[in-house]
Design brief:
Layout lengths: L6 E4 L2 E4 H23 L7 H23 L1 H5 L15 H19 L5 H22 L30 H26 L5 H21 L6 H24 L23
Antiparallel strand pairs: 1-2
Helix pairs in contact: 1-5, 2-4, 5-6, 5-7, 6-7, 7-8
């Protein structure tokens, strides 16, 4: 069985499937977030310019952290630092740079959208987009597989010998599960008047835990693995601590929703 094609040609133009996958993923994230903003009662006319900055900073941050985590591999061939079509984008690096950029732009362009509310709206979008991105990104790139395997579900990837664990598929399934949990928590928050910030705490914590197990169980132990495992566990611990704090603290809320959102804050979001 041949590996999944990672590049094709349109005349003299060389097109990388990895890049197409990322473009589709970003488009999906933009459309889904715009829909959730409207469903929650917020305007979305400001999202276009903000999303451009989010995309740029996500790619830059993801590449910088990946290169720093694998610096030894790039010292012998510095030109490869710019070859993002070969893969190599750190999820944590993308979040590290894109999330503050997105919040800063949203605060300036849509001041009525408070940070905690924005985080709850964005969290399911990020998880769903990451799941889709696994299938349309690493699944279609050079060396996209995990550890070698002889299992029936193993797949062949470009520039990797023998069958490999289809880690991008595993990751997509994990994230779709986290996405489903996030929406369930959101429905509970709306129905019971739960605290703002709970959705992002649950989604972030579960996503961090899944990243730890991805690195620990499925992926080869390269130079960046330990750092990702530590970051994943740290994200899970922070998410868990925030959940406990939000659920334990007293919350003044709407008179018609015990412990609920403030009267001036839209509480519905929808999937």
């Amino acid at each position: 069985m041949r590996p999944i094609p990672v590049v094709f040609h349109l005349g003299p133009l060389q097109v990388h499937t990895y890049g197409i996958g990322l473009a589709i993923t970003f488009w999906f994230g933009y459309r889904y977030l715009a829909r959730r903003l409207r469903a929650a009662g917020f305007r979305d006319d400001w999202l276009g310019p903000t999303f451009v900055w989010i995309v740029v900073t996500a790619i830059v941050g993801a590449r910088i952290v990946h290169v720093l985590a694998n610096l030894a591999a790039y010292r012998s061939d510095p030109v490869e630092i710019l070859a993002i079509w070969h893969g190599g984008l750190s999820s944590f690096g993308g979040l590290l740079l894109a999330v503050p950029t997105g919040f800063a732009s949203a605060h300036r362009r849509c001041p009525e959208l408070r940070a905690a509310r924005a985080a709850d709206l964005v969290a399911p979008v990020l998880v769903a987009s990451w799941a889709l991105g696994r299938l349309l990104g690493p699944q279609l790139m050079v060396a996209g597989g995990g550890k070698p395997t002889n299992q029936w579900f193993g797949m062949y990837y470009a520039d990797e010998v023998g069958k490999r664990l289809p880690v991008p598929v595993f990751q997509a399934l994990e994230c779709f599960a986290v996405f489903a949990v996030s929406l369930a928590v959101e429905r509970w928050v709306v129905r019971r008047g739960g605290p703002t910030g709970l959705v992002v705490a649950v989604a972030g914590g579960l996503w961090g835990l899944s990243r730890f197990f991805d690195e620990y169980l499925w992926l080869p132990h390269d130079s960046g693995t330990v750092a990702v495992e530590v970051a994943g566990l740290a994200m899970f611990a922070v998410g868990l601590a925030v959940c406990v704090w939000l659920l334990a603290r007293p919350r003044p809320g709407r008179p018609d929703v015990p412990g609920g959102a403030r009267e001036d804050e839209p509480i519905a979001a929808g999937p």
